[in-house]
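hey team, just a heads up i'm posting the complex here instead of the shared drive bc the drive is being weird again. everything in one block, sequence lines first with there labels, then the predicted structure for the whole assembly after. its two chains so it's a bit long, scroll down
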Amino acid sequence: MEYLKNPMGIEEKSFEIIGNEMGPHSFTEEELLIVKRTIHTTADFEYRDLVEISETAIETGKNLFKNGTMIYTDTNMALNGINKIALDKTNSKVICYVNEEIVHKEAREKNITRSMAAVEKACSDNVDIFVFGNAPTALFRLKELIKEGKANPKLIIAVPVGFVGAAESKENMDQLDIPYIRVKGRKGGSTVAAAIINALMYMVVER
Amino acid sequence: MEYLKNPMGIEEKSFEIIGNEMGPHSFTEEELLIVKRTIHTTADFEYRDLVEISETAIETGKNLFKNGTMIYTDTNMALNGINKIALDKTNSKVICYVNEEIVHKEAREKNITRSMAAVEKACSDNVDIFVFGNAPTALFRLKELIKEGKANPKLIIAVPVGFVGAAESKENMDQLDIPYIRVKGRKGGSTVAAAIINALMYMVVER
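-- predicted structure starts here --
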């Protein structure tokens, strides 16, 4: 059987199909790169209407990746989906503490989620970009820490998926005065989170 | 702000909401556990109509996990999403060769995808369950190897996502005479693949 076997060829063709089918929109060229990549990873055209990119988010993201940056992810799955070659080229790092014993202990003791305990730990490190694909509780906690003056992220990727708290956790992002990219409503996920970070990195490094 | 912080509580509540909103269906109780988990990980109710479970797939999966089994995944992201505690409890293992140097080399030399080269390697090992969340090329290759008598998987999870080859790779699964779970059309992905494996494991082990 004949089928396309070249990875870059497959991706190019996919983006062409997405462009042809996604219909009218008012995205800038760079915004479109992000939106298309979320559709590419889900095959779900609803993302065209769900992705919201704050005014300075792309510029901020590009500048961070140009200078090397530190990324927190709420799950190892999101961490895993981030392109490590591009990450190296941008001199950037990604951390996710959910499997660390100290985080497990904290979560058990406080009866909170592990990603919530992990976000607290990340805030004491030099993390610039906070990425949430799964854990509304972690995003809620980050927002609390920001309001308490204990966290000062430079960019937030707010795309938790789910039915309990996910949509709510992504509301009122514009009140934080921090650049963000979010997926409105219940949809999102680790693959979407990774896709957005990859899209930003691909704007500043050759692949 | 008040929000639900207990992980098991969040999952239970989510499944309740999914049950209430998913509308009429004709799934068995066990099929429903799989379908609900795909909706849980995507917040996309379309999966109700896209998931197809072959007649003996669940029984086969349960028996494999009862006796300890070997799983191949096409990406590290899918591997990462599989619950390692449940995996240990079922005495099972999961492998994904895409980051191994020998697989890189083979892919470069043959100008094929890494997951395609990885599936060839997996066929020479004792792999029972083949899981595809991303790479149609790998699923195409497995089907070729089956037809050539060079592979004999016991269960196939066929859920590659995408616009080039994904839908086609999942067609005619019923002609292989091997139990399978698939997502029809373009949708699917690593998170969906992991969700299906987790659903099967949770049928045979306490969490």
